[in-house]
Amino acid sequence: MSGITLYHHWSSPDCMRLRLALGAKGLAYESRPLAYTDFGTPLDLGYDRVLPILEWPDGSRDNQSLTLLLELERRHPEPALLDGLVDAAEWQAFLDWHARLAPLLERLIAPVRPGFAEIGGDVEALALYKAECERHFGQIPEALSNDRYDGYRQLEQLGQLRALSSQLARKRFYAGQLSLIDILLTADFQLLRLLDGVTLPLDLMYYFQRVAEACHEDLDAGLQHAT
């Protein structure tokens, strides 16, 4: 074991980022999935309920996923996922592109998260999640789902997803080999595949699976129907 402990929710894209990155590095870590209603464990670790929380072997911790990805790259530089693959300007351009899409993407995947057992499989957790959605978006997940077709069309156009998927099919990975951009793209966008009635480009679906396999990760882990 690497001595790393990851406290996470299965349904969280931010948590998926760390799961993919740790797998890409070949690091065996202690996986600590928390109940969605578990407020106590994060507080005991010195944080609010925002996950992931990653604890390093030296006992230090953080719960900012992007900061953690960069720190993981610093502490475990091999195999490289950023340096030598993506230059600073391209990395910043990607982060800017992602930031423009993030509010729309967050609304789109909100109705999907109850498909995970940690939320949809527990009455109290589901009620909590619905209340959180209503506070954050002004709508419960069922209402948000009604806008999924228009929302996805906007995302597809704004993010030029069809052109991106064609590029990823040609190169297999964004930079030609696995990088942090692939990890962010897969972690943050792969839940779109679970939107009922929304059809993602087939090349994008294959890409998500290709990244997951390279990271030795199961994209369906935690889903209620997953075995």
Automatic annotation (TrEMBL):
It comes from Thermithiobacillus plumbiphilus. InterPro entries: Glutaredoxin2_C, Glutathione_S-Trfase_N, Thioredoxin-like_sf. It comes from the Bacteria. This is Glutathione S-transferase N-terminal domain-containing protein. Pfam families: Glutaredoxin2_C, GST_N_3. Residues 2-80 form the GST N-terminal domain.
